[in-house]
Structures are given as C-alpha cells and as structure tokens.
Amino acid sequence: MIKHFLEMNRRDFLFNSTLALGGLALDRLVPVTGKNLPHFSPKVKRIIYLFQSGGPSQHDLFDYKPLLNKLNGEELPDSVRQGQRITGMTSGQKSFPLAGAQFNFKQYGDSGAWLSELLPYTAEIADDLCFIKTMHTEAINHDPAITFFQTGSQQAGRPCIGSWLSYGLGNGEKDLPEFCVLLSNGTGKLNAQPLYNRLWGSGFLPSVYQGVQFRSAKDPVLYLSNAPGIDAATRRSMLDAYYQAQQIQYESEKDPEIQTRIAQYEMAYRMQTSVPEVMDIDGEPDHIYQMYGPESKIPGTYAANCLLARRLLERGVNFIQLYHRGWDQHFNLPRNLSNQCRDTDQPSAALVKDLKQRGLLDDTLVVWGGEFGRTNYSQGVLEQGNYGRDHHPRCFTIWMTGGGVKNGISYGTTDDFGYNILEKPVHVHDFQATLMHLFGIDHERFTFKHQGRYYRLTDVHGTVVRDVLT
Predict the structure, then answer these.
(1) CB 19 within 8 A of CB 173
(2) Phi, psi at residue 136, to the nearest 5°?
(3) According to the 3-state scheme, what is the secondary structure of 257-292?
(4) Angle at 249 between CA 243 and CA 255, to 5 degrees
(5) What's the pLDDT at 105?
(6) Residue pLDDT, tens place only, 383-400
(7) 190-242, pLDDT tens digit by residue?
(8) Hey, which residues does 114 pair with through a beta bridge?
(9) Of 12, 153, 339, 470, which cross-links 8 as Cys (Cβ 3.0–4.6 Å)?
C-alpha cells in the first residue's frame, strides 16, 4: 500500500483524493464564458421544479373570468382572437363557443388570490405563492413547448435548465447527482403525451451534467447495481483498472468526455450506497404521509415523488425536476381535470409546507406549471356540463415560492376573456432569466461556445422580472 502511494503521480493523486477530477478537467478544457459563478449573491441554492406536462387549464384553476360564465356558449369574438394561430385540432371548427369554468372560485388568504374549488390544499398556502398569470410562449404543440421551457429552444439538442445550473454551480463532490429527475403519470388523461429523456439532457454541455432519472422500480437508477457475483471490492478494482486505461486514452486524445466517463463511473459507485438510503421512505413519520396524502406511500406516484424530492434536497441535490403527465384535457375536461387535481393538489401544497417547517424554503425555489395554457372556447361541441379545451400559448398561469420570491402576489393581467395579455407579460425567456437571477447568475453573461457560436439558456433575449422578487 505504501509503495502504491509513493508511485502515484500528481494526476493519480487528484483522482483518488477527490471525485471532481472530471469537473476540474472540464473547467480547463471546455469553451465557456461567464463561468466565474455566481455573478452576484444568490437568493436560492436549490430548486424543485414541478412540471405539469400537458398544459393545465388556467381558466378552471387560477384565472377567474366571470364573463366566460356569463357568455357561456356564445361565439369567441373575432376582435378577441384577432386571427391568431390555433392548432390543427380546432382550426377546422366552424364554431368557437366560449366555455365558462364549471367550478366555483373563491378568494383566499390575505392576498385574496382567486383559486378554483379543485385546489383546496393550494388555497391553504395562497399567501406563500407568487402567481404569474401572464406567461406566454410561441410554441403551440406539446413537444416544442416543453422543450422550449426546459432548454430555451423549441428545437431539440440544447442543454436543459438543470444541466446549465449543474454545470455553472455544481461542485461534483457528492454522493448523489447534482440534478435528479422523477416522473409520474396522472389520472387526468390516459395515454398522455410522452416525455423524452432529452428534456433533461445536457445537449452540447459535457454529459456529466445531464439529469439522472430515478425510477420507482426495483433498481431506481438503471445499471447501478452490481451484477451477480460482483461485490464492492471487485467493483472498486474494476474502476481502478478502468481509470488507468482511460487515462492512457485521455493523454492521447485530450477529449474531456473521457474525464466525464470517469466521473460518472465514480458517481455510480458512490450511488450504490446513497440511492437505496434516499429511496427508502419507510422511516418517514405518519404525519408526513398524512400531509402528502394517501398515495405518498405508493412508489412512482406524484405524491411519493414530492416526498422523495424533499429527501433528495435534504441530501444535497440542488436541482430536482418532477414531470407529471396528464394535463391535456381536450375533451371531458370537468371529469379529467378533477382527477388530475386530486393527484397533485395535496402533495404540491404539502411539499411547500414541509420545506417551510424545516426551514428549507428560505433558500429553495419551488416552481409549479406547464408548457402552455388552454383555450377559453370549447374544442368540439360544448355540452351541458361537459367541454374540452385546446392548447393556448397566448397567456397562462404558473406559480413560484421560496427564497427571493415575493409571497402572496398575482402578477400580470389578462383580458376579460382570458385570451390576451393586458399588462405585464412574462415570456418563457423572461422566466428563465428570472430563475437564473435567483441563483446569482446573469443570464446574458453565462454562455457556452459551441460550433463557433456562444449559446445561453435564454438564447438572444429575456428580461429578469424584478417585480416578483424581494
């Protein structure tokens, strides 16, 4: 053993004494501008992004419009639509009957936030939330819209938000990945829109910064467990031999992805111990299960993933992305949306309460929202007590809470039809710029040179929405 350490060169010492060798090499080799982060004092250290895939209906949940109820069944005025683009699913309709919400709305808390009866638990935390009611996007179909939110471009191939933040702020010295992803399926729509792993991919950033998906199966992370007959000592010996072979290749090619592979193997080795511990929620007290709801004991559900997100956060994971499918209510909205809200309302509110009672919300950002909203008119025939809504990118609602975000406010105003924005629009790139700002990052300065061009998450525009920040 003494001889072994005497024969170690400097590079061997760095590798064996720290698990950040891949990061050290990458910092020197990858072409980046603005990597001296943070640019200024951050307001948050961590984020849990509750992405509601499919497009929640703002009309039935957050953006109360009495006029729609009053004019229920009447035609959408041309003066409101103004010839704006609609999807191919409703472009052939000869009639666009306005559909009022079939759910009661009330104001809650000192803030007086309007919320639907479908969200009784969210109503309890209304004064902790910042509702942005004027989100808008150019994307009108699911895949480009989700890709736009996650990567800043409607075209696949760019790094996602989690990868940007992991690359800029991660330290690589943990027993769990910097960026973890959890998926769940709702009961609001069968055969919901698929989600692709490129949504949490690193794009042209080094692959060590891609999100790691945790699953509810026996092996939460694929290919993590040792094969039969392989014990920890054998695995360690294999990794040491692998490192030596990869170093020879690296000295020859100077390819930073070689160092990335080494770092990923080392992370996997550490995760063999850390992942089973974090996934074992049996030790949570009964009052926590009661807070998150009855499904919190069922692996893979939205409730269980919200609870797991808190456990990951407590163990040093800084970006946790939850995707929940099933919000695409083109038809049978009253029934399907009710089911979807039963999946998500209690666990979402419980997560905020849980973080707050543990003192974690002060430096954690929680975001809830989808890729676009829903139309104010019915897709297909408007029936008594039944309707559907198509995609609507012109205005929709998300909420945020946590460090650096103003509590108990509703930002922005839409028209009485809930179709267009009247004041304080927030574009997807504005949202991304604001998110980066909370982490102490100037989104215009944090760039990466790829194929001769400097890229950033917000592409070529985006403005921090300072009115929603403390």
Answers:
(1) yes
(2) -150, 160
(3) HHHHHHHHHHHHHHHHHHHHHHHCCCCCCHHHHHHH
(4) 100
(5) 98
(6) 999 999 999 999 999 999
(7) 889 999 999 999 999 988 899 999 988 777 887 677 777 778 787 777 777 87
(8) 107
(9) 12
Radius of gyration in angstroms for the set of CA atoms belonging to the chain, rounded to a whole number? 24
Cα dihedral sign, 15-19-24-29: positive
DSSP per-residue string spanning 144-193: HHHHHHHHSSSSTTSPPHHHHHHHHH--S-SSS-SEEEEEEE-SS-TTPP
213 CB-near residues (< 8 Å, 6+ apart): 180, 181, 182, 183, 197, 200, 221, 222
Amino acid at 421: I
- pLDDT of res. 256: 77
* Residue that wins the pLDDT comparison between 11 and 432: 432
Q: Check pLDDT > 90 for residue 281.
A: no
Q: Which two tokens stand for residue 127?
A: 């004064």
Which position has the token pair 């992305």? 321
Q: What is the pLDDT of residue 223?
A: 65
For residue 466 the two structure tokens come to 């300072």
CATH number for the domain formed by residue range(s) 2-90+112-468: 3.40.720.10
Reduce the DSSP state of residue 109 to 3 states and report it: coil
49-87: pLDDT as tens digits? 999 999 999 999 999 999 999 999 999 999 999 999 999
Report the candidate in 152, 170, 160 with the shortest Cα–Cα distance to residue 45. Answer: 170
Q: 330 near 390, Cβ under 8 Å?
A: yes
pTM of the model: 0.88
Residue appearing with tokens 């692709």: 196
Contact 260, 206 (CB under 8 A): yes
* Element spanning 369, H or E: strand 364-369
Please give the Cα distance from 369 to 50 (Å, whole number). 7
Return the percentage of the chain with pLDDT > 90, whole number: 75
374 DSSP 8-state letter: E
